[in-house]
Amino acid sequence: MGPECNTETDEGDVFFRILGPFQVSVGNTVVKLAKNRQLTVLALLATEANKIVSVGRIIDAVWGDASPITADKQIQTCVWRLRSVFEAAGAPANIIETTQGGYRLRLGESGLDAWLFERAVARGRSRVEDGDLGGAAEEYRAALSLFRGQPLAELDSAVIEAVATYWAERRLSVLEECLDLELAMGRHRELVGELRLLVEEHPLREHLRAKLMTALYLSDRRADALAVYRAGRTALVNNLGLDPCARLQDLHRRIIAGQPVPSPFPQRARHAAKIPAQLPAGVGDFTGRLDQVEWLCRELNQDRTDRPRVIALVGRGGVGKTALAVHAAHKVRDHYPDGQIHANLRGSTEPRQAADVLAEFLHALGVPQRSVPPDLSGRATLFRSVSAGRRLLILLDDVADYEQIEPLLPGDRGSVVLCTSQPSMIQAPGVAMRRVDGLTTAEGVQLLAQLVGAERIAQEPESARLVVERCGHLPLAIRAAAARLNARPAYRLDRFVDRLSDEDRRITELTYGSLDTGARLVASAERLPDVARTLWLLLSVMNLTHVSAWAAAAVADLSEDEAQRLLDLLVDHQVLDVVSEDGLGGSRYEFHSLVRIRARALAAAELDATTRAKARDRLLDVFSWLEEHARVALRSPRNGLTRPAPASVLRIGRTIIRDITQYADVWLAQERPNLAELREPLVATSV
């Protein structure tokens, strides 16, 4: 049998079209509808056909946030008029049903073109599974023919627009499946024209561009295929500041070398619904980190069930955790034949709810929407059942904490969960954790050369090294710097270094479009408790080359134990670094250079001058007394100071006094840089 997408209806049957301009017909007669809010109400009911739609949702669709007081009554009037129109057209009397709290549009199983579309797609995938590729292509094309233009484009409603966007994206997704199938069937010459139009319409959709390049190359038009790549690269660089994805670059290299290109897998359509392949595109210019890539691939390829099945990459924003995770995940994807799932949990900004993420996971694994439980516990239980016995690679990006991902963990150790996170995950049971730091200077220069051109870097190698250092060795900052340099092709690197040397403008220079270095670096600071954030801001404006717990206590007017707990929290949120142990058995902390600049700007905006001055006075008071005590202890260890310790020192605790008495020479040596810096004026910046 051929495709079954006939939209002709019997007399009295009602048929709705949403895959294009909104249209309703009864039998073979198109119903004339007024182009006002009645049309919006009916369109919303159609997109949710056979489901109860609340009055509140209808009001949102019609008026948004500006609904009138009489909105409920006006909706009732709209529904009454719609019923009258349908009655006059000969539709069933109960087509719009009033329910408790809302309305429901009652349609037969073939009453909506979107339903016919999905059935045809399902039949196409089934035919692929049966080996009937020609029949599958017919089903796909029949499904796609149901689209008559931009879905619901004439309706001015944010709610309807979201539905329309979904169906437009759904059409493209199915079209890509169909094109893959037809390319695999050898129809490359026939597809060139259609693919050219699609690429012109969607110039940044790299999957379509790859298909056009493949079709041209297989049609013995290699020069044209290379021209399509160059045009795509120009569009990506101009619009996003990015190079093409690794897959497109690999295809480009194969075409240049005259090598065979990978043919789309003939059964891609069947697997699309059952085996998810959601990994983001790899970074084509991924640089360095050989040891970390080797370790990560080894962990991901591990089959032993006694090893952790949760792997966490931890580091500050902009350090390249996601790029590393995606790069390694692509290397081992064949080790997980049951699929790869990805979700951005937005832990450093607005953490997503685990229940919402689980719904997406279940849908990706083939669970129908109607079978997804409404509660978190039910979804987590079903996910463990569905994933049991499968080998899945689950990539969770930007995790807030272990609590956020715990419901997302599969119960079977055949799968692995790879996380990226700013806060430490060390408290999580059975997690293999690896800290990700910045690139080495050589790696940073190599990345910069890939982004702006090796010839430009070779002309000013020392300036290139200084750019990397001013970027704090962070890939995000280096990419932002490269984007700015690419926007100024004649600009010398040494002049750019001069601009970066000015801390008042460095963060601005290292922000370009979506490459917002300042925001990404301190995003997690927004989730700090107020007392911890205040300490962080105060420390940033103190002239300290390093920070000890007792110094933090002096700045914040706390005990050393209280300050230590806050320092641990700052380290956990990646806004302060532990750099070494001091000579007295404690830890020393430092700011990353860019974090400090950003923190100082925030301090200038959030802390008044009096607060900063009082903190500095306490710090100077403590430092002065401790320095005097240390020098007396060196001369006469037994006698100590005759001048009593001030309240600011006693507030910290007596541990520091005892330690300095015993190790005065060590303390003086390690604090000499701070003693010199504290004589400088208090930092006040407006970065």
From TrEMBL:
Domain OmpR/PhoB-type: 6-107
Keyword annotations of the record: DNA-binding, Repeat, Transcription, Transcription regulation
Any one Gene Ontology BP term: regulation of DNA-templated transcription
UniProt-recorded name of the protein: SARP family transcriptional regulator
Family stated for the protein in its record: Belongs to the AfsR/DnrI/RedD regulatory family.
DNA-binding region of this protein: 6-107
Alphabetical list of SMART domains matching this protein: BTAD, Trans_reg_C
Pfam families: BTAD, NB-ARC, Trans_reg_C
Top-level taxon of origin: Bacteria
Molecular function GO labels: ADP binding; DNA binding
